[in-house]
Structures are given as C-alpha cells and as structure tokens.
# Entry
Amino acid sequence: MNVRQAPEYPQWPQYDATERDGLVRALEQGQWWRMGGSEVDSFEREFAEFHGAPHALAVTNGTHALELALQVMGVGPGCEVIVPAFTFISSSQAAQRLGAVAVPVDVDPHTYNIDVAAARAAVTERTRVIMPVHMSGFLADMDALAELSAETGVPLLQDAAHAHAARWQGKRVGELGSVAAFSFQNGKLMTAGEGGAVLFPDTELYEKAFLRHSCGRPRTDRHYKHEIAGSNLRLNEFSAAVLRAQLGRLESQIRTRQERWAVLSPLLEKIDGIEPQRADERTDFPSHYMAMFRVPGIGEDARNALVDRLVAAGVPAFAGFRAIYRTDAFWEMGAPDETPDQIAERCPHSEAISHESVWLHHRTLLADEQTVHLTAEIVADAVAAV
# Structure
C-alpha cells in the first residue's frame, strides 16, 4: 500500500490538571466510597443536568447500568426484551443474566439502529422492554419508538453507551421520557477506565435502582435493614472525580468530531465501494462515538483483512460488531427458540453489516483536518488492495 506518511492521532483517554486535581480532592476528603464522600453525588447531579434528566445513578460499568435498569423495569424470568441484532453483546446479556429472553430484531441498513417495524413485529405478551441502541452516537428513531411504546405499553430503555451529549430534534437523551444507560469504559466519549450511569425520568424508579445498586440498603440505614435483594454496583469516589473532569470537556470534543465527520464522511463516500454510516437527520447533535462505514459484498474474511491493513498503516480501525446471534455467548442462556440461521433470515441487514462494517476510533475525529484527509487516502488504498 502506498502511504505517504503515518497519520498522527490524539491519544485517548485525554486528561489534564482537572483530572489530577479531582483525584487529589477525592483522596483528601478522607472518604473514598460514595456513601461517605461527595464526588459521586456531585457527578450524578452534573450528569443528570447535562442530559436533561431528573435523576442519574452512577454505577460500576455500562453493562451493570443496563442490567440494573432492566431489573427495576421489571425484567426477569419469563420476560422478553427486544434488542437490535447488531450491537455489542452487553445489550442482550444484560437481559439474559436476569433470566429473560433476548429477542434480536433487524436494524436499518443506513443508520445501523433498530428497525422500528421489526421491533413492532416482535412484540408479544411477554415483552417487557424494547431496547434501542444509539449506534455510534446516531440516535434511533425516538419518535416512532415512543409511538410504539405508547401503543403496546412496553417501555423503552435507551442503550446510550455511544450517545453522551447526543440530541434528538433538540432534546437531550434525558429529555426523551425513557430510562437511558451509559458507559464510561476506557474507549467511550468520556471515561474513568470503567463506570456507567443510568438516567431516570421519575423518582420511583430511581429510588428502586438506588436500593438495588447498594445491596438493598437505604442510604441512612445503621442496622443492616436490607429492604430488597441487590448487589454492590456503587461507583467509587476516584472514578467520579475523573468523570466530572471528563464531562467538562465533552461537548467541545464532540463539536470537533462533528466538524471532522463532515469532512471525512464525503471523502469516504467518494471511495468506490464504501458506504459511510448515515444519521437520521433528526439526530441534530450526534456524538460520533465511532466513524463507521461498510463495504457491501466484501465478506467477513476480506473485511478483516481490510482492518488489518488499516491498523498496519497506523489507523485505529476495528471490525464491526458480530451479530449477537452469531456468538456462542448469546446461546448460553436466555436465547429465543430459533436457530442462528433463522434469526439471520429475518435480520438480513444485521447479518450483512456485521460482515461488512469497519469502525474507526473516535480519536480519528479529534485529529486536524489534514490528518482526516490522510485517513481517507489510507482507507481508499486499503480497500483497493483487498
């Protein structure tokens, strides 16, 4: 491959004295867990306000955020949860670990988000939650999903692990009227290495979740009166201090990514055989967790070779998620009474995207514009070589 130079991208995670000062502040307060310190409480208030939600609950990671949200929404044995077939496996495993059946449905071929018509067709009397995943920070069709929820009485849980700060027709994730779960894993748009949060639209669900995430124990309990079954999903004070700093620069970083995607996407579109992911135009503030594209017809082996070429050229590239029903993990518990091929037949877009898609780490969209052009040149060379 003829590459003029190796691209230089910003490192991730990013930090400065704000994180360092926050860690010292958490250290010197003398209480390092949420029940004695102030950093987690402060972060929850700030994160909820930033996203327009009444309540936020910080937890240990994004997978636990989904699992906790599902549990307080009534998911358990005998229930079904509708999930997109093209997503990271946590979306389905969070339901399956509660004893529920995860029901994969197809996604839109352009946005890679849940197909609302497919979700409607999958609703049964056992459906307890519909879980849209905002793939790479492009929001799912929240208008149609809200209508579906109202028609069926099945609530929505937004998997917003990619969608920090994203907006749908001017509304922030917390203003869309449904529970939303976030991740702060090392690669996410804001991070403390690990961590998660759940936004709640009402106090009752929030209070139930607080009890569940703290071993079922009320805040002021001194006599071990564990009111309900729970687990220890509490975030620590050091992570919260880092996340407060990360939140402070989130929006400016996303604006940079938006500017760079506006350059990169047309360049990718000009490359023969490439189709960049497209947002629903009603996502008027996408967060760009990934820069995603697909090469229709390439096949999984050639796609993997393409990713290897990009990595060798210095581009932080990754294969698209494997369709969840094509993993062994999906079938260990809580799987529907179907075969993988039967699910694939009704999820043709998910099947294709999982074999054809490539994503670039969001730090590629924090680079300067010249590096964005160089990235497109490298992608073009790599596609031509496979």
